[in-house]
Structure formats: C-alpha cells, structure tokens
Amino acid sequence: PSMDAVPVVVPKPDESAAEQSQSSSQTTTAMIPQTKNNDRPEMVILVYDVAKKKNIGTIIRSAVAFGVSKMLIVGNKKNLKTFGHQRTRDFMQFVYFDKFERAVEHLKKNKFTIYGCEICEDAKSVVSHPFEGNAAFIFGNEGSGLNQKALKACDRFLYIPQYGHGTASLNVAVAASIVLHHFSVWAKYPETSRSGFKFVVDETKKIAEPHINFIPTEKDLKRKARILAREERLKREAAEAKAGSAASAADAADADADSGASSAPKSTSATQEDGALALGTKRALETGSTENDSRPLKKQKLPTVVD
C-alpha cells in the first residue's frame, strides 16, 4: 500500500519530563505514514524480543512478499539487524517506538487487532482464518516465546497446526511467513505478477524514507560514515579500473596498427627499388666500388702475373 507522511512535531527543550513524554508519544504518532484508505484490511508486524538477526531479516523478506505495510520496532535507538533480507528492506516502512507500551497504544488507537502467535489454550488455528479488520502480529522470542508483557497486549492468539511428531514448535521466521501468507489470502490482496520463474520486483515501490523516528547513536553514525567511505572507494576504484582498461585497449589497438603497417605488402615500385639496391650493393662488394647502381655485373679479367 502507498502512504502519505504526516508532519513531525519536535518537543521543545524546556518542557517538563511529563510534557516531553506526552509530546514524544504525539511526535511518534505524527511521524507514522498513514496508509491510504482502501478496501482491504492492513497488516503490520510488531517486532519485540526477537533476538536473532537472521530471523528478523527473513521476517522482513516474507513481510514484503505478503503485503505487510509497516514493521513497528521497539527501541528507537536500536540498530535493527536485518541479515538475510535479500535486498527487500528498501521496500518496507520501519517505525520505531521507545517503549513497547507506546507501540501498543498506537495500534489500539488506530483500531488494529493485535494477534499473538503462540501455542496457548485459547489460540485459534490460523488455517481457519480467524481474522477481523486491520491486524498487527507479534511473534515471540526464539527460545521462550511471547513474554508476559506481550501476552497481556494481545487481543487474540493464533497457532499453526502441525502434523508430524518430531518438533515442539517452528522457527519464528517460518511461523511468521505462514501466518502472514494466511492473512494476505484472507484479505484478498492482489497477487503480484510473474515473469519467467520469478515474481516481478517493482522498483517504484521502494520506500523513500524507510526509517521513522529512529535516533542513531554515535556508533551508528560512525558505521554509516564507514559504509559511505567504502562505497566511495569502491566507485573510485571501479572508475580507475575502467580508465585503465580503456588505456590498455587503446595501446593494444595502436600496437596492432603498427604491426599491420610493418607487415603490409610493398608496392611494385618499392620492390623494384629494393632489388636494384641489393644488386648495386653486391657489385660494390665484388669490385670495391662505393657506387651504388643497378648495372649488370661484368666478369672481371684478372691481370697476368710474370715471373
């Protein structure tokens, strides 16, 4: 879904702590791009307490594939690790909240039903599509699942049925992919077009400002500076290599041209001149004459020796 950004309200330095807290909440809400009204329910993910970066990266990839509009991240100074996203991160909107409660407050205010993916007594099978309206999904920690804070925030619970007997649960990224797919089918999201053996990637759908309300630390800024410096170095090296290749190609072309000129067949007149020169040289060697002409050699008569 496409989105329109709302202007940002920045807290003033002289506000009291309580006022700053309220203003911070309003600022975060104001900064969140609003999804344009359409006829289909919206789907978002609240990322909380997922520890492994490869799982977050895989969840991002699945979220982009199945039509998630935003990912809400708890911790606005947290440098989100997205290993494994396979270049899909540029197509996702990330909204950062300093506290879990503020993220939940935003979802409730905007009429999202919060679904927890957990194997608990009152959970409904995701296969039955027990969805209603806009949905926000919370997926638990890899080892302990949803903590008590997350459990209390959920309106409903989902579980994924299993049919084998060798594992107690699924990987969190795998579970997220299954749940997101079921919701997109239920919500009747339009299927992405295909080309050959792949789905079509629409570069125009990239998010211009993907990170909302993120406060970079000094470490983040240094890391970004290193990345930019490395990119500039790689561009410079590529340009130098390209220029070197062009110069080498030009030198090779010149060498080929010189070689072609030296090996080219001589004209008839040049051949005749070379023949005459060679004949003259031979005559000079035999007679001791330095005259260089092309007259036919005459047989020399040796002087008679008298004793």
Automatic annotation (TrEMBL):
Query: What are the protein's UniProt keywords?
Result: Methyltransferase, Transferase
**Which stretches are tagged as biased composition: Low complexity?**
18-30, 241-264
Q: Mind telling me which CDD domains this protein's record contains?
A: SpoU-like (cd18096)
Q: Does the keyword Methyltransferase apply?
A: yes
- Pfam families, sorted: SpoU_methylase (PF00588)
Q: Name one GO biological process term.
A: methylation
Any one GO MF annotation of this record: RNA methyltransferase activity
Please give the superkingdom of this protein's source. Eukaryota
Q: Where is this region: Disordered?
A: 1-35, 239-307
Ranges for the tRNA/rRNA methyltransferase SpoU type domain? 43-181
PANTHER family in alphabetical order: OBP33PEP LIKE PROTEIN, RRNA METHYLTRANSFERASE 3
Q: What is the name listed in the Swiss-Prot or TrEMBL entry for this protein?
A: tRNA/rRNA methyltransferase SpoU type domain-containing protein
Q: What is the lineage of its organism?
A: Eukaryota, Sar, Rhizaria, Cercozoa, Chlorarachniophyceae
